[in-house]
Specification:
Elements lengths: L10 E5 L2 E2 L6 E2 L14 E6 L5 E7 L4 E7 L1 E7 L6 E7 L4 E5 L4 E6 L6 E6 L8 E3 L12
Antiparallel strand pairs: 1-9, 2-3, 4-11, 5-10, 5-12, 6-9, 6-11, 7-8, 7-10
Amino acid sequence: MESNIIDIEGVSITPIKKICHEKGDIYHALKSTEDSFTEFGEAYFTTVHKGDIKGWKKHTKMVMNLIVPVGEVGFYFHDRTSSKGEFIQVGLSNYVRVTVQPGIWVAFEGLKEELNLILNIASITHNPNEAINVELNTFPLLKKR
């Protein structure tokens, strides 16, 4: 199992409940009563193919709540000063919610051949002027060993 400790202020990892049922399992995502919930703007899914990396992106206002219900995704983070990088692998083998506050650089990589699906429960609706994108080679992609 992957380590669930991220040493970047503004990124938190929350184990989320998976309820096994003989006719199909239930996977929780986010409740409005949880500490990491701020407000609801929109929920959307994105995919990433195995070996492809999307990023770097930094939101200036949006709080992201990232869940991987299908496949496996590696998330890369750099702190607000871009001096510290971290990595976590998320999926059904490590079913957690990654909450990312504004100002954190994020990139993510598909790790399975099959579908790699990410759910973002965002605090605000999408606004293309609210995020900053830079080239992938701007920051190193640091994986935990």
